[in-house]
Amino acid sequence: MKKQITTALVQQYAAASKDRAAIHLNEEAAARAGYKRPIVHGMYIMGIAQSLYLAEHPAQWIKTCNMKFINPLLTDAVASFHFEDCVDQIDITVTAETGEVIAKGTFSVEERF
C-alpha cells in the first residue's frame, strides 16, 4: 500500500501531537541537519501503518506495535507499507519511493469480534 505524505499532513500531525520540532516543519532546520526537506515524524509513520493495516483487516485489533526507524522519510514523498502475515505477528516494512527502507516493525493482532 502506498501513501503520499504531504507537508500539509505533517503540519496537521505536528499540531495534533504538539510535536512541533523544527526538523519536521522548517526547511532551514532540516537543511542544517543535512536533509533536503523536513522529515516526517516517526510516530506519524507508525500511525499510518496501523491505519492502513486496519482498513484492510477490519476484524483485527492491534494489541502491540514495535517499530524501528532506520532512515528518515522526507516530506512530500510517497511511502510504501508492506505487511506480511507471519505465524503470530504481522511484519511491517516501510520504504521510500527510492526503495530505501524507512522502518521495520511488527504488530501483534487478535480478532476484534
Walk me through the topology.
Elements: E1 2-5, H1 7-17, H2 22-25, H3 27-32, H4 42-56, E2 60-69, E3 77-85, E4 90-96, E5 101-111
Antiparallel strand pairs: 1-3, 2-5, 3-4, 4-5
Point out poorly predicted stretches. Answer: none
CATH top level class name: Alpha Beta
Shape: elongated
Number of strands: 5
> How many structural domains does the protein architecture include?
1
How many distinct helices?
4
Annotated CATH homologous superfamily: Hotdog Thioesterase
Protein name: MaoC family dehydratase
InterPro entries: HotDog_dom_sf, MaoC-like_dom, UPF0336/Enoyl-CoA_hydratase
Organism: Paenibacillus polygoni
Pfam families: MaoC_dehydratas (PF01575)
Structure overview:
A hairpin with a 4-residue loop joins strand 4 and strand 5. By secondary structure, this protein is of the alpha+beta class. It contains four helices and five strands. The protein has a single domain (2-111), classed as Roll (Thiol Ester Dehydrase, Chain A). The protein starts with a strand and ends with a strand. The protein is elongated.
Structural descriptors:
5 strands; MaoC-like_dom; MaoC family dehydratase; elongated; UPF0336/Enoyl-CoA_hydratase; HotDog_dom_sf; alpha+beta; single chain; five-stranded antiparallel β-sheet; 113 residues; Thiol Ester Dehydrase, Chain A
Give a brief rundown of this model.
The protein is α+β, with helices and mostly antiparallel strands. It contains four helices and five strands. Residues 3-84 form the MaoC-like domain.
